[in-house]
Amino acid sequence: MRRTGRAGRSVATAGMAGRLGATRVTGALRGAVASPGRRAEIRAETERHAAEQVAASLGNMKGALMKLGQIASFLDDGLPEPYRVALAQLQADAPPMDPELAEAVVAGELGAPPAALFREWDPVPLAAASIGQVHRAVDGDGRAVAVKVQYPGVADAIAADLANTELLARMLPMLFPSLDAKVLATELRDRLSEELDYVHEAANQRRFAEVYRGHPFIHIPAVVDELSTRRVLTTELATGARFSEVERWSPEERDLAGETLFRFVFRGINRMGMFNGDPHPGNYLFRPGGEVTFLDFGLVKEFVPSEIAVFHEMIRTLVLNGDAEGYRRTLEEVGLLRSDPTLGTDEVVGYFGHFYDLVRERGPRTVEHEYASETVRRVFSSKSPVAKAVDLPAMFVIVQRINLGLYALLARLGATADWRGIAEELWPMVDGPPSTPLGRAEAEWLATRPGGGA
Fold first, then answer.
1. Which of 145-154, 249-258, 342-351, 357-366 has the lowest mean pLDDT?
2. Summary mean pLDDT of the chain
3. Other C-beta atoms lying within 10 Å of the C-beta of residue 137
4. What's 287's DSSP letter?
5. How far apart are alpha carbons 341 and 368 in whole angstroms?
6. Of residues 118, 410, 160, the one with CA closest to residue 292
7. 2: number of CA atoms within 13 Å, CB side?
């Protein structure tokens, strides 16, 4: 039974907490009478069982709480390993809704059941996530399509989660023991409100698909407009390897995959003024040679030119010119850093400079777990004197998804590249020459686009 009301969600969460407590009490009793060697095994077994309970409960609840589990599974290196392993199943294989429910949503949105709309309809979903699930189908023109169907009641469930401060206070520390619960709650609220409207998502996806039309290694599935509504989104069916499979590919292929992810994110911001703000393992399909299909455009942030100018000024002062004082002035002028004469400029650059480490020097560099983990800690740190003087303006909130998501994915790939060289291709104030084979392929594509492309 899926609970969507605030009271029901609280009951479900309390029940999960109670089951976790019982599991740990039982484990403690078993450990008390066991030998020292067996005691460690019992502790590990208990934590593994508890983690599986969390994953199962969140998967069945859907909504904001399940999204927490998805983020937790790949984001926070401070999360105990049994929880990371158990929650990983939520990235692309969450428990689906009954076939009859999915068909009812399609009928309600499109005016007829799937059997009448599609030549073929697979009732078993390709993937099930926090807000909807995706079914393979064949439309009337014989095209293979992916049909994303929103869970009934998920909007109410999310609203209940985000309004229920008691529930969030219970869940956030459980999943993110080292991070700031208030900041995470705000991020979730922004993230999920955008994702609920598939009309909004379809418009985002069409825009990205047009910009990247004919690209040699970045692919965006086309939207099938006549089969899309606010709660049903139909696109061309894409195929490829999932992120977990790519992690087992050769280092060379992982490097290419990581480079494509990096190029997509930073070309979007620097050249399009847009950021697809959900770098999540379930949102990509991969092919050898660096080819990536990008899925899920529910959260796209469009920046105005003055905001992009701020990003570029920060890069110019710190990375290109090494002007520490100029960089600090920029931070203060945009409201990211409060003016505090007790803080030395070296302290400020030492804190913020970490976020630019990959692009501050030329040459190959591997994105390591330590770097991604430290990046997360700095985003949510409340201990550093500099962090205490930081305010996060609205324009920077969604960009933190790069720090929280993209670098974690690159670290999982162990991706190695000359990130500075690639970045200089994408920074308009540098407009550097191609620095890699993928860069050369992209430059050739850009030469064929009106006005030089994105």
1. 145-154
2. 80
3. 22
4. E
5. 35
6. 410
7. 25
Q: Is 63 left (phi over 0), alpha (psi -120 to 50) or beta?
A: left
Alpha-carbon span 276 to 236, nearest angstrom: 19
The answer to whether the CB of 389 falls within 8 A of the CB of 416 is no
Neighbours of 84 (CB within 10 A): 17
Residue type, 57: S
Q: How far is CA 191 from CA 64, 67, 188, 221, in A?
A: 10, 10, 5, 22
Burial class (CB in 10 A: 0-12, 13-18, 19+), 188: buried
Q: Classify residue 226 by burial, with Cβ atoms within 10 Å: 0-12, 13-18, 19+.
A: exposed
Read off the tokens for 293. 């299909």
Tokens of 144: 């293979």
User: What is the tally of helices (H) and strands (E) in the chain?
Assistant: 21, 12
Q: Which two tokens stand for residue 228?
A: 């899309």
Distance CA 377, CA 374 (A): 5
What domains does the chain contain, in order, with CATH numbers?
6-91+163-179 (no CATH), 98-150+197-238 (3.30.200.20), 300-452 (no CATH)
Q: What is the DSSP letter of 63?
A: H
Per annotation, catalytic residue among 139, 255, 278, 296: 278
Give the type of residue at 113.
Answer: P
The greatest distance separating any two alpha carbons of the chain, rounded to the nearest whole angstrom, comes to: 75
Amino acid (one-letter) located at 66: M
Q: How far apart are CA 92 and CA 113, in angstroms?
A: 25
**Which pLDDT tens digit goes with each residue over 9-55?**
343 444 434 443 444 334 444 444 445 555 566 455 655 555 455 44
**CA-to-CA distance for 264 and 454, rounded, in angstroms?**
11
278 is catalytic: yes
- Is 346 in a helix, a strand, or coil? helix
